[in-house]
Amino acid sequence: MTAQAPANQSDWSSRIALAQQILPLITRLHNEHNVVTSVFGRLLVNVTDIDIIKSHRYARLVTDRELPLSATLPILQELVEMNLGTASIDLGRLATGYEAEGGDLRAYLERELSEVIGRHTRTEPVDVVLYGFGRIGRLLARILIAREATYGGVRLRAVVLRKKSDDDIDKRASLLRRDSIHGAFDGTITVDEENEVIWANGTAIQVIYASDPAEIDYTAYGIDNAVVVDNTGVWRDREGLSRHLRSKGVSKVLLTAPGKGDVKNIVYGINHGDIEDSDRILSAASCTTNGITPVLKVINDRYGIVHGHVETVHSFTNDQNLTDNFHKGPRRGRAAGLNMVLTETGAARAVAKALPELAGKLTGNAIRVPTPDVSMAVLNLNLVEETTRDEVNEFLHKVALHSSLRQQIDYIKSPDVVSSDFVGSTHAGIVDGLATISDGKNLVLYVWYDNEFGYSNQVIRIVEDIAGARPKVYPARVEPADLH
């Protein structure tokens, strides 16, 4: 034991030394070229030397071995000297691709990154307004502030509220600063009471008090052509949401709830390609719909789904009562922290709005449980083709690691994970591989999802898409159907 310690310490010290060489190169790429780097999708943003070592260790899930820091360092040394435009570059995929191919490193990188060399696409950031500042609204604010610092494509300009007290703005700032589930805000927050502005990490968030969307003139605050994200849920059809479009300075509206009528329900990664320039009102569907639709799509594409039932085990939400009291909905009046509450969910039906091929094939129900965040969907599916547990798990693992849906679908195979382990997940859903059950054409999948933060990240992906600010990833990821 003692004889190995010096060697281990030496290896660790050399890793630290390499990571410290990598850090300034990552910073240069971001500051000088607006390039964000990752290792197999794990972003290297605001990282430490330890984070860099951990990201390279994570590569063993993809390639069955750790990625040596010595493999990515020369790539970064070349990248900082290349005339790169805005991009998200996966160092892990570049390193493994070059290892397989060999030859001249610079020539390899120039070929793989030809689309982004010399193409500087910095544009004026698109303004975003949050209409409502509850659980989802505040998480959207946190993500937008971080994304602006990372990519600069969208910027949070204002939140619209109903004033509830004389110290309303201080209370709102405090709720943004502290979160019992997601922890403290990563940065500094100050309040300019005179101008009704919350400053968060240098971002000026104008607080606008109003009770009717149509009465607001955003241009008076220097906001124009803004994307308004309505997270109040008060209006869910085209007529109601059109009230936002009567405001001066608004170009598009995105609802963070299932839309009614002919409002398009978008699950990013699945049907965001259906968004047209002429669409001014859109919905980001629900957290559960986002959590299950990507998994259902890849399973249906690979094996075919005859019929399925979706049972969601969902954390309680603000619309339930803390103690028994009147509620307009069945059962939801009973104490949320003390009971499992059987209720309805429209998520199974809503899947068909994003995946029309599954229309009429899914049923669903929900059980609200006494946890504050992170939910689970149990997908009980009858398939067209037979499969095995190992086969379907291997396929979903590959989808999570290699495909264009890797931001939507994650995969884990651990005997000890529980719901709190997924607080803060940025994925739409996480397949629990150890829980998978397969018997011929019958398949049961268990999918975790952070119904607050994972969903909020999906919303931001739609915002960036309609703003034309989604960063392209290089090398390009493959479609799930092309995985073997």
UniProtKB/TrEMBL annotation:
Q: Which CDD domains match?
A: GAPDH_I_C (cd18126), GAPDH_I_N (cd05214)
Q: Which GO terms describe its biological process?
A: glucose metabolic process
**InterPro entries in the record:** GlycerAld/Erythrose_P_DH, GlycerAld_3-P_DH_AS, GlycerAld_3-P_DH_cat, GlycerAld_3-P_DH_NAD(P)-bd, Glyceraldehyde-3-P_DH_1, NAD(P)-bd_dom_sf
Q: Which PROSITE patterns match?
A: GAPDH
Question: Which top EC class applies here?
Answer: oxidoreductase
This protein's UniProt keywords: Oxidoreductase
Tell me what this protein is called.
Answer: Glyceraldehyde-3-phosphate dehydrogenase
Taxon lineage: Bacteria, Bacillati, Actinomycetota, Actinomycetes, Mycobacteriales
